[in-house]
Amino acid sequence: MTSAQVDDKGQGPHSAAADATTSAEGYQRALGARQIQMIAIGGAIGTGLFLGAGKAIAKAGPSLILAYAIAGLVIFFIMRALGELLMYRPVSGSFSEYAREFIGPFAGFVTGWTYWLFWVVTGITEVTAAAQYMTFWFAIPQWVSALIFTIILYGVNLISVKLFGELEFWFSMVKVTAIVGMILICAGILTLGFSDAGDTASVTHLWSDGGFFPHGIKGTLMTLQIVMFAFLAVELVGVTAGESKDPKTVLPKAINTVPWRIAVFYVGALIMILSVVPWTEFSPDVSPFVEAFEKMGLGVGAGIVNFVVLTAALSSCNSGMYSTGRMLRDLALNGQGPKFFTKLTRTGTPLVGTTFSAALMLVGVWINYQWPGDAFTYVVSFATISGMWAWIMILISQIRYRRLADRGVLPQSTFRAPGAPYTSVFALAFIAVVIVMMGIDKDARISLYCAPLWALILGVSYLVLKARNPGNKAFAGR
Fold first, then answer.
1. Could you tell me the maximum CA-CA distance found in the chain, to the nearest angstrom?
2. pTM value?
3. pLDDT in tens, 254-270
4. What domains, with CATH codes, occur in the chain?
5. Which of 16, 51, 271, 300 is 20 to 30 A from residue 454's alpha carbon, by CA?
């Protein structure tokens, strides 16, 4: 049963008044093309790049560039698989909806709740990073900054989806402008030789300081969970489907920007900063972008970059609050979550779901208070495994959808994924390798310990809900 079907039965608050500006789920179609494009671009530029890259550089050296390039290709395969599904049926609860339709009700239940958990944990991650960035200017406890940011972003998300889209547009614009500007500055240093790093800057740093693989292939593989975490949130455009003014036109364009986004913002940016400053001079606990400007002798630039990365973290946290409320409402509309999560404000925002999620994000304040030095590492590993579950469900759903569409059972999508289903199978295999690497890495292993516990909680919850609602189609088998 889809969200649209539930609303048609009168359970959604706007079911009787759906029109050109209201989606079937009751949301307001207030996100325009420029906002969707910048949400798609900004989703790929967050804490994983600005803060997590420092740890990854220490583990892999220049070979991190290759890791981002290969992982970026896999992300493109995932996004095209998602695009094919979105053009078949664009809905706000996309991942759990497709898992529910093509795999089964339990898969939809697990996907919806796991993606919700992913964004709660990611929100904690991003507010943790934002609190760390504040220490660049002010000697205040991390937990204080984390608390203030959480409260402010919660308030923004309750006003309207249009304000959310506008805020994300400008957040993303700041990030894009800053990275492009940094690339141009680094290019100027390499060609003209200005700044403190001008005399030593050279592309030879990419292979002369211990080689391109200074810690071997294993060192590169061990960074995969950090690399994949950096790409988490690119799938956010799927959640915006129910609130986009023209999803059939806007979403394919946004998805097709993935290759050049990754080429410029990840591969291009890393090539530049690792050419200007040797990888051995970066600290794993400091943003490589901030540190690069400091080593160039551009102190003001370091402050500017720190502001930009603070913006990036707040942007991702803002997206997290947006996503969690929608995912909880989709589960509730399908009978797989408490009914009170269906409540919308007059402006079409999920009031109860967003409030509940923001309250849980305050756990990040406690984490920052208890373990200010290790908070980022703890939450990154758990966010990565829960976020990758959504990708796995997208890929499996696309494979099954394509099979049914090719047999004529379902209509063909207007945005077919090239090379599928082989590209989807390859992406699934790559994700499996990442999970194995997480099991080997002692810092990331904690997420694999938590995953079975979360699966047990979901399994028990599903059986209880199914027993209490024997006639509910949301729990019926395929």
1. 74
2. 0.86
3. 888 888 888 888 899 99
4. 28-463 (1.20.1740.10)
5. 51
